[in-house]
Each structure stands twice: as structure tokens, then as C-alpha cells.
Amino acid sequence: MAENPNPPHNPTGRPSKEAASPPKKYVRGPDDEIYKRKREKKPPKPPDLSKDLQQMMYGFGDAQEVDAESVEMVERLVRQYIDELLGEASAIASIRRCPLDSGCLLYAVRHDRLKFERARRLLEMKEVIRDARKKADEVEDVD
């Protein structure tokens, strides 16, 4: 590389600070305190279903003040069912070599005609609602 033909004026003859390498930035290393503290990831808390279940139980004929033990039992059953269903759907997804999606869930409930039809109708309604919102947003954008 060619030397600069017009070096900056330096009457002292000492090397200028400009010519020196830039100051080193501090880089964190494994000995720093931030690396010593390991952040423990807490598993996410499952959502509380008790209020929704109380309302559903009342809607299906239970007393207005539902027994807490009954709600806990139903919640355990619901969680167990969801775990089993998602486990089966996850196995289906791994066999299909695709991410877990609504198709995997539909395939998992295919033998129970009522559940299958209800899930299919809910997915269809989801699309209808999505399309309606999209059209409503387009109308708002035009105004």
C-alpha cells in the first residue's frame, strides 16, 4: 500500500494518535457476570380453564355455583384429552413430515364423526370470518 503523500502536520515528530490503531472495544467474555448467571427458563403456565368450564357446566344444566372439585376434575379430563389429541396429531405430523396443522388434528379425530364435522365446520367458519374481515378492511381503506 502506498504511503500517504500528504501526512498530517506533526511538529513534534512523535507518532500521532490518529495513526495509532483505534481503541479496542470491550468484548464480554465467559468470565463476565452476565454469563455466569444462567437464566432458568420456566415452563409456561397452562391457561386457567376453570372460569370457562364453570360457565359451560352451568350452561349444560349444573348449578349456578359449580362445585370446585367438579371443575377441577373436568379440567383434568379436558387437559388429558387435549394432551392425547395433540400427541396423536403430532405423531401424524411427524409421519407426514410437516408441521403440526389443522389437517393433522382433523386426521386425529377422523373416527369420531361428530368431532370431525364440528372441527371442519369451525375451520370453515374461521375462513369465512377471515375473508369478511379482509373485505371490511378493504372497504375502510377505500373510504
TrEMBL record:
Residues 1-52 are annotated as: Disordered. Gene3D superfamilies: Histone, subunit A. InterPro entries: Histone-fold, TFIID_TAF13. Coiled coil: none annotated. It is found in: Nucleus. The keyword Transcription applies. GO terms for cellular component: nucleus. It comes from the Eukaryota. The keyword Transcription applies. Residues 1-10 have a biased composition (Pro residues). One of its GO terms (biological process) is transcription by RNA polymerase II. GO terms for molecular function: protein heterodimerization activity. Keywords: Nucleus, Transcription, Transcription regulation. Belongs to the TAF13 family. This is Transcription initiation factor TFIID subunit 13. It comes from Pelagomonas calceolata.
